[in-house]
Specification:
311 residues, six-stranded parallel sheet, alpha/beta, 12 strands, Rossmann fold, globular
Amino acid sequence: MSRILITGANGQLGFELRRALAALGEVFALTREQFDLADEAAMLETLDALRPQIVVNPAAYTAVDRAESESALAHAINAHAPGVLARWCAANDALLIHYSTDYIFGGAGDQAWSEEDAPEPQSVYAHSKWLGEQAVRAHTGHHLILRTSWVYGAHGNNFLKTMLRLAAERDSLNVVADQIGAPTSAALIADVTAQIISRYRLPTQKFDYGTYHLAAQGETSWHGYACHAISHAHSLGYSLQLGPAAIHAIGTADYPLPARRPTNSRLNCNKLQRAFSLTLPSWQTGVEHVIERLFHSLQTASASNTQPCPG
């Protein structure tokens, strides 16, 4: 059984990786407090103690706007730490799986980005993630870099959960409609990672290291994403103040933020699907599944609160 280290275990992707990888080996799921990517010495001490054969690194500095004023910390976690992990993996014959982002692309045009397209990061966060990719490639050939987009899940904070919360509190919302991509669930990313690791462990299978795009199929805007989510939540019986008709489309210029976002976040995932014999689901499927999980949790909590006290 493989010894697998997961960083950022309490993040939305780390949380799903703990579930998906549990059956694949001895899993060490470490939180930020247990494995701080901004502390190189502590990282190396932990790696030397645990001796993982596979390092899975979903941990990252993801506060996109705050990174504009916390550049040093963003670069320490997103750019420098992946290189530290890569050097250790190279020296210890371990596989490194590292996650990156659609934000490394400039965002022009309307074609889906391939792995061969030239990055053009537009923000501190995006630049730090691009440098992290380069550090991984520079220090170990035994790596997988999985670029993904618009990640959300039932655990942690994300756009989907924010929309559901606001729809329960307000009678209208304004949501950006000129940024296009594919909402991708943390559960999907984790499940694909598990399939890749299972293939890696088969000695008879050719294993293709390198960079891959991993996102749900199809495309939408943040506005389209919000409308679909609220429509499905209504169909389940969510208690909401508004419906899709009250979600108004606005432009990026109408909602200025410190960090620039790419308008085109489409990712071409054909390479991943061919290499690992995968068929990725539509973005709508994942969104609906997470909403159903959240609704089930609400119902369970409500039923627990209304049960009479024993005795």
